[in-house]
Amino acid sequence: MMNFRDAKAAPLEKSLNSQLKAQLDPAAAYENLSEEELFTPAEFDHSNAERAGYSNYSYWGATLRAFFKNKAAVFFLGIIVVVLAFTFIQPLLPGQRDPKTINNDPLTGVQIINRAPDDEYWFGTNSIGQDLWARTWAGTRTSLGIGFAVACFEALFGTFIGVLWGYVRKLDTFFTELYNIFDNIPQTLVLILVSYIMRPSVGTIIFALCLTGWLGMARFIRNQIVIIRDRDYNLASRCLGTTTGRIVSKNLLPYLVSVIALRMSLAIPSAIGNEVFVTYIGIGLPTDIPSLGNLVQAGRVLMSQPSLRYQLLFPTAVLAIITISLYVVGNAFADAADPKNHV
Amino acid sequence: MAKYMLKRILHAAITLCVVICIVFALLRQMPIEGYFNNFDKMTEASIQVSLNKMGLNDPLPVQILHYFGQLLKGDLGVSNRYRQGYPIVKIIAQKAPISIKLGLISLAVSLAVGLPLGILMARSTRTRWKLWDKFGTVFIVIVQAVPSAVYHLLIQLYGSEILGVSMLFNDRNPMTWVLPVFSLSIGNIAYYAMWLRRYMVDESNKDYIRLARAKGVPAGKISRSHVFRNAIVPLVQYIPQSILFTLMGSLYVESLYSIPGMGGLLIQVIKLQDNTMVQALVLIYAAVSVLGLLFGDLMMALVDPRISFTGKEGAR
Question: Is A192 in contact with B290 (Cβ distance < 8 A)?
Fold first, then answer.
C-alpha cells in the first residue's frame, strides 16, 4: 500500500521540485536547452498562432463519468447485463430442459404436474408438467425480442419522421395537424383493435405496438430539431454548402442520441407490459409460444390456490426485475447525457 | 383564447370522425361469424339474407355513411352474440354508471393521496435524511416501471388476503370497492406525486423563496402559500393524461374483479367476438378519451394563460 502511494507521489514531487527550482533560479529554465535552440531566431508559425485554448472535455467521457457516479444505476446496469446474458446463454447450459416438453416421471410414466420448486425443477412445473424454469427464460427471450423489435422500430421510424417534420418547413403544418388528430387516440384501443382483427402471433403484437409508439418519439425529435435547426453553426454550415443529409447526421442527430436511447430503454418495458395485457384479454400470443404474458396469464388462473402461487410469482419477479432495471438505467443515462449535469 | 379553444374542439371532432371511419372499416374485415349467434347451423342462403338485411353487403362508403346517420340518432346498433337483438345503447346504459362511479372515485383518491405525497417528498428534500423523498422515489419507480397488468394482479392477490375480502367485486359489500379503486388510483398517485415534487423543488430554489427564508418566514408558511400555490398550476396539464390512464386501466381492473361495468364488458365481447358490440364499445372509449383530453386542454388554457397559446405547439 505504501509503495503504491510512493510510486504515484514521486513523479509529482519531481515536477514540483523542478518548477520551484525554475522560479528560484531563472538560469535553470534554459540550462538543458541546446546551444542551437537558444541562439536561433524564432520563426512565425501560423498553426501555433491559431491554436486556441484547449479543453479535454469529451461529451461521451463526461456522460459515462456522470453515469458511473450513480451507484444505483450501475447496480441495475449490472443486473441487466447478467439477466440478458443469462437469458441467451441458458439454453446452451448443460442439463436444461426444453420449455415445451411435457415431463413424465421416469418410474411411473405419469406427468409431473404442479410440482413445487425443488432442486430438480428450480421453478417447479406447470399444470401440464412443463419445466417452469425453462419456460420462464424462453418467455423472457420472446418478450425481450418483442420489446427490442418495437423499440428499434420506434427509434428508426420515429427519428426519421421527426427529422422530416422538424427540418422540412413545408411539411410542418401537415404533420402537426396529423399529429393533433392521431395523438388523441389511446394506444391501448389501437392495440386491442389490431390484435382483435389480425391472427394472434408475435408479428401481430409487434405490428400493433409499432403502430402507435413512434408518434411520441417523432414529436420529441421534431421539437428538438426546430430548436437547434437555425442555430448559428447550422446556418453557417448551410451557407458553406453542406448537404442537408450531412447537417442532419453530423449537426443535429448527435444531440439527440441520449434521448433516443432513453426512449428505447423505456419502450421495452412498456412493450412487455402491453404483451401481458393483450394476452390477458385472450388476443395475445398463441398459448404454445412461451412468453412472459402467457406465463403470467397461466399463473393468474391458478393464483387462488396458495400452493400453486409460485407459477405466478416466478415469471412476475423476472418481469419486474427486467422492467425496473431498464427504467432506472434509462433514466440515469438520460440524466448523465444532459450536458447541464456535466460540470 | 377563443380561437385556440375553437381549434382544439375542431381537432377533437375530426379525431372522432377519423376514429369512427377507421374502426368501422377495420371491423368489416372480421369474419362474418361475429354477426350471428348460431352460424354453424345456418344455410348459405339464410346467411346472405340476413347480411343483406343488416346492410353488410353494401359497398363500404355507403355503410359508413349509414352508420354515421345511425350515430347521429344515438343508435349504436344491436348486439348479435352477447344478447341477440338487444340494442347496445340499452346494454351500455345499464353498465356505464358503475364504471363512471369507479373512475370518478379513483380520480378523487389519486388527487387526495398523490398531492400530499408530492408535498411531503418536496419538503423532505430539505431535511437531513430525506426519508419521504427516498420512500416516494422508490414507490414511483416501481409503479412506473412495472407493467400495470402485473401490479394490478399482485394487488388483487395480496390485497384480498390482507383485507380478508373475496377477490371478486360485490356491489353490496363496500369493502370490495377498496382494491379496484386502489388499483386504478395507484398509477395516478405516482404520476401526481412525481410532478408535484419536481415543480415544488424547482419553485423552492427560486430567489424569492430564498429571500423569504432569509427574512425568517416559517418553512410551513413558505411551502403552503408560495411554493405549493405556484407549483400546482402547471400540474393541471397532467389531468387529461390521468383521465386517459384511468379509463384504460379500468378495462383491465374491471375485468379482473368481474365488475359489471363497461371495461369488463369490452373484454367479454372481445372473447365472444361480437363485432357490433366491440365496435360500439371501442368507439365509446375513444370518444370518452378524446373528450377527456379536450376537457383537460381547455381547462389548462383557462387556468394558465401562459400555456394556452403555445400549448400543443410546443417549442416554437
Answer: no
Residues of B in contact with A277 (CB under 8 A): 147-149, 252
Q: What angle do CA A192, A198, A202 make, to 5 degrees?
A: 85
Contact criterion met (CB below 8 Å) for A215 and A223: no
Of B142, B145, B282, the CB nearest to A189: B282
Which of B4, B21, B153, B253 best tests the A interface by mutation, with the highest count of A CBs <10 A?
Answer: B153
Residues 6+ apart with CB under 8 A from A305: none
Predicted TM-score (pTM) of the model is 0.79
Three-state DSSP state, A102: strand
Residue of B150, B270, B293 with shortest CB distance to A283: B270
Contact B145 A296 (CB under 8 A): no
Predicted ipTM of the assembly: 0.81
CA-based nearest distance A4→chain B, Å: 37
Record: contact A282-B271, CB cut-off 8 A:
yes
Q: Which of B29, B30, B147 sits opposite A323 (nearest CB)?
A: B147
Structural domains of chain A, with CATH: 59-93+132-341 (1.10.3720.10)
CB A145 within 8 A of CB A138: no
Taking the C-alpha atoms of residue B116 and residue B172, their distance in angstroms, rounded to an integer, is 31
DSSP for A210-226, please give it: HHHHHHHHHHHHHHHHH
Q: Which residues of B touch A327 (CB under 8 A)?
A: 141, 144-145
What tens-digit pLDDT sequence spans chain B (316 residues)?
778 888 888 888 888 888 888 888 888 887 777 777 777 777 777 777 777 777 777 788 888 888 888 888 888 888 878 887 788 888 888 888 888 889 999 999 999 999 999 999 998 888 888 899 999 999 999 998 888 888 898 998 888 888 888 888 887 888 888 899 999 999 999 999 999 998 998 888 889 999 999 999 998 898 888 898 888 877 877 787 788 888 888 888 998 888 888 888 888 888 888 888 888 888 888 888 888 888 877 877 777 655 444 444 443 3
pLDDT tens column, A100-128: 777 777 777 777 777 777 777 778 777 77
Select the CATH number that applies to the domain covering B90-270 from these four: 1.10.3720.10, 3.30.70.20, 3.30.365.10, 3.40.50.150: 1.10.3720.10
Residues A316, B267: C-beta atoms closer than 8 Å: no
